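Extended Data, panel c. Modelled sequence:
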Amino acid sequence: MVNVRRRERCGAISKTGKLMKIGIIGAGALGCYYGAKLARSGAAVHFIARGATLQALRSKGVTVHRDDGPFSVSDFLATDRADNVGPVELLIVATKSYAFEAIAPVLRALKGPDTIVLPLQNGVDSAERLGALAGSEHILGGLTYLPVSTITPGVVRQSGVEKPILLGPLNEADEAAGRTALSVLQKANIAAERPADIRVALWMKYMLAICTMGVQSVTGCSIGPTREDPDTRAMYLACLREVDTVARAGGVNLPDDAQENAMRTIDSYPPAVKASMLQDLECGKPLELEAMHGTLVRLGKTYGVETPVNQFIYAALKLRAGGSVGSAAGK
């Protein structure tokens, strides 16, 4: 195992010549993985965490298990006091979307006038929602398909090929911010790419995720049975059509074969695969329902597009979206 305690200064340098100051909100699987790689590159990484996760980060650092061997990093700051950290240069937001209002004070403490913000949630409106909480300047579009999971707090497993972060500016004013974020990630040996249109990339992931999450969650079945049964397969197809129609109504030019490609991907998964929303539902955790189906229903109403399948999924799951009775998100 490689144990990194010394800053290696291999590229994570800011314009001032100092170590780049990076904040990570959400020290789960994604946050720990990307934060560990950035810290290993020499960046001054600040994890904002609490509870058992904060204790683990402070006492043991972060350990990443990969197919090519594990590595550990402890040369970073972990704290629950974002106000003591102050504005950072790059801020990665890796929480679930339903936590945005709860992290608003943290976001405002870490986001200065020049801070570049990279959100990595499911959905298509993270930048807009974060901007409403702390100002819209320099908030990029971002997403990842990275296969990574938490073993215990501060210990994560990344299996298979490291699929890239896709990021890009959502307006011309943030072109430089997009280039800077991409360079920082790539110099930290993080797979990262800038697609031709980040909005298209966001909607392509959204199309696939919203359908698998919704159909599986309302049926309580994995991907195999739901794609084989003709009635639930029809739900997949109808859901794909609704997402495609809403995206185009909003000016997002998806590929002509976007629906077909999404269905081919669904057909390629092992039968036992379960969408993250179904897993959360089974565990009594809060659901990303508002960011997924709620958003599509609202956008459909805005653009005059009917979304009956997604409206049904939203209504069927709405009363369970807060998780088990007594959870903070459900209060």
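Residues 5-10, 325-331 have pLDDT under 50 and may be disordered. This feature is highlighted in the accompanying rendering.
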